[in-house]
């Protein structure tokens, strides 16, 4: 089948060539007789053979060259007006009437070249007309050869410096020639499949124009050519075009436009050979020479060159971290010449430079091995330093990177020091509140990601983090201390699992010693002040100490929490926010379900809490039924006092009833029944836990009471209360349907 296809193509080519030769013979006779009509007729028939779609590009080229040779003779005939007696203007209009578009456009290009030669019309107008009309042929092969013919016949008529067409009265300039060639290049590049040798002619002609000096090449020609090279996305096309650019334009041009050229390299599908062999050494040397030669080069120009070289290096030599560090070192050397960097454009380029390794490797750990990386960051102003620090943290978050050694944590926190402490000349009070919160929350999430399964290494990480964050000041500590505390608690659990201690740099890593460290750290929060947060952290540590069976330490943390509550939080009872006091009390209650606490310690703390006086009835009610849990610790035998639980619940019920009556007296309505529903849930909890003092009759009475209250006209409608009660009733029904002992227990309750 392959042989048959080759034979068929040879046959079609032979037929096409025969037709071209036959029509060319008739055209020659017409030319000899000065018969314009027949010359146009047979030339159009000859050119119609180029409309074929049966030939490969290689075979089509043979057919095209036969027709091209004949068109040169036709062009000579068109130039001699005495032979055909028609002005070139009329001739240009006449060939518009050719039947098919492809022959018509070839004839137009031929007459157009004569038209420009006579100067009867501005060359720029004719060129623009021809390059636009050639868009009528979109077949890749036919379109490429047509545009190749157009640029070939017009090459010696282009306006250029020193050419006659540069000084025509209509004002055609070399820029018009550049625009024509580039536009034709763009259109050919769009049509290009594999016929790269045709497209390259445009670049060759561009390089021969005297008007394309260094400035024109750097500012106009190269960017537009590279844009098309990148956008074509074709491996073969990109390889060839980049090679053409290097070959046809002078080396001086490449050296002075290195930044633009290198910036395009990372976007190529494949790099040309000249960029694959000893590329870094050659380009690095070239950039160094450019910077040394131009003493007055702005800093931004030098840094931009380094950015381009780094981008190229990461694309071509991603495994050579020494190359990357070398580029950063060269940048540091250049920046050292300026005591203070004030150029915002240069600052932006430094951010791009520092971001490139992060984006390439997707791993901050790799960047931490670059010795010159922090040295470059030191040249940023305070604001940009924080921006770069945020980029680093976001990269870690995005890739879920784990920084697992104290040495790397030390380097990392040096990089982000702009976020964890006030830099020279700035204070946290000067920052935007929303931006500040976002920054500190990012630091907190970062601390949570610092981990090592080895307890010894994790201890060193904790010491390193603590050393840095404790200098953060009162506005930062509430964000950064909590994650550090929980990391330390993680270490304590790890030590429990290993059933041993670890020797650290400062103190032995025993749970007791770590708790002492935590106590000192949390105390810093209480003087910031951030008392509520400190209280919660004290209670978390109390729970952890309890899990470690360190009752004295647990009791000490509870004592610290209560002292903090009495000295800082309870004062708010008479000033700003009563809800804060209530929330703090509820937090303390929730942490009191700890097994190893002795009965003496437990009830001492309970009695201290029960003395708290709350002004609002709903607050009193919730505090009282919360205290019921103090007398029923589910996992500890001997600390289940059902009678005292019932007393708390009954007292809470009386307070709730009093609250309803007060609301009715003050506002004429009883308010929502939420308190009753909350108390019902406490009854259900202790009923299910087996408190013998709580009976099904009590629950039944409370359900009926709530139902009556909700049906009363004096009760304020509250959808949330209704939904809460409905959910509670569904739970009772669910328990009844369980069967077994639970079902029997709930069976007497009617809902």
UniProtKB/TrEMBL annotation:
Which InterPro entries does the record cross-reference, listed alphabetically? Vps35, Vps35_C
Q: Per the record, GO CC terms?
A: cytosol; endosome membrane; Golgi apparatus; late endosome; retromer, cargo-selective complex
Decide whether keyword Cytoplasm is in the record.
yes
UniProt record similarity statement: Belongs to the VPS35 family.
Name the source organism: Linum tenue
**Bilayer disposition of the protein:** Peripheral membrane protein
Q: What is its main location?
A: cytoplasm
Query: What is the name of this protein?
Result: Vacuolar protein sorting-associated protein 35
Q: Report whether Transport shows up as a keyword of the record.
A: yes
One GO biological process term is:
retrograde transport, endosome to Golgi
Role description: Plays a role in vesicular protein sorting.
Q: Which keywords are on file for this protein?
A: Cytoplasm, Endosome, Golgi apparatus, Membrane, Protein transport, Transport
**Where found in the cell?**
Cytoplasm; Endosome membrane; Golgi apparatus, trans-Golgi network membrane; Prevacuolar compartment membrane
Q: Pfam families from the xrefs?
A: Vps35
